[in-house]
Amino acid sequence: MWQYLYPELVFEVFSHFLPGLRLIASESDSFPWYLGHICRGWRSVFTTTPEFWSTIRIDFDYDIFSGNWSTSRKALTVVDRTATLVALCMERGKDHPLLLEFITGIRDSRNFDAAGSPPKRYVEILDMLVAHSARWWEARIVLDAREIPALHKAKGYFPQLYALQLLVSNSETCPSLPFPNPFEHAQQLSRISLSNVSTWHFKWSAMKAIEIHPPGAITFQDIIDALRETKCLEKLVIHQSIPYDISDMLHDIKPVTLPSLTILYIEGATVLPFILSPSLRCLWIQNGYHNYEKYYSKESFHTHVAAFFRPLQHLRFMMLAPWSGKDARIFLQCMPRVDHLCLVTRLVDVLKSLAMTCPNALHLQELSLELSEFCPHALHEAGSILATMLKDNGERRMQRIDVVSTQMSTIGNSPRDISSPSFIQLKYICEELGIRLATLSIWAHTYDLVRTSASYPKIISL
């Protein structure tokens, strides 16, 4: 009976497999090939449905490609099989928009010939993909700098491309690329993620979401100049800090106003005074990588942070990973009212600052904490601080709070191996006050912030 179903009904059945489906060339066994083995009619629908063949991941970034390919039969076999799968997908995908991931595996210079070209079979795979550049809709490309010329065979023709993640490895071997940016004239491109890309020409005015991880050749002034050209930017991720005194920098670089910006993720709080964003709703400050303590100690830093926060009337979510109790105290003192605060820290002093110096902590609806590498004593103290914030002297203090989410670990323990009496007490207080206690996964990939509507951590109820 099943073999006599109309093709439209077979497609309805198949459509349940499509959400999130992609063909991973290196793990092709996980692809539902069995859908083509049921009967002739079902196989026909399977092979002629372009949606099955238009999302492909080609990943050469694993161990068998770490050496010289010419001496590795297994590596060459994988490349040959990948080439066959790519050809199959390009044929069966027809004109359907293409979602593509291509991750280089060339780590060894011996895989380039005397002219600096990659292996022939590898180039053939790139050429097949580039030949279908008119179909590219979303692309994640990770290439060695010497492989970039292959993209120019498209002659800048990417009429459907709307989202691009481009990461160039070994850019130091090719510091000034002698050719133009292959995506400079992609007219629909509005979401980009750039890492180590020194070709700095895009249609910035069309950008709605930008992630930047610049190489040394790109200065902070270059970034600000590009942002000045934007007209409708909604999301911005900057993986760059400024190891200088902010007051000195403000004499040379004027702040940029981004009126449509709603999501901002920065690494290094010294960037904040240069981004004016009155419509901001979600703010991620990853300050934990940069020890600029001498700047945080200056009174001017507090002034600049306060000036940044003052116009933010729409901020609803804030994630803060401070370097020390000192910068945490400044941020928490200046923080406006938000519904949801995430704190990521290894220091119990940060929680003390939240409890004692943050006037708007009492107005939170949701509090999320990632407490890592705490010694048992500090973890016990952290639990006591949280419990007192919720209820003190028999009275509920945080009237609006309805969710407390945590991810905790002591040195040597897994995140869930927590049995501190203070956290047991915290659990009882939450139950008494009707507050949901949950576990937390804070880190969304930053590119997901750019390419999707993601802006909040993932909260999982216990």
UniProtKB/TrEMBL annotation:
Organism domain of life: Eukaryota
Annotated organism of origin: Amanita muscaria (strain Koide BX008)
Protein name: F-box domain-containing protein
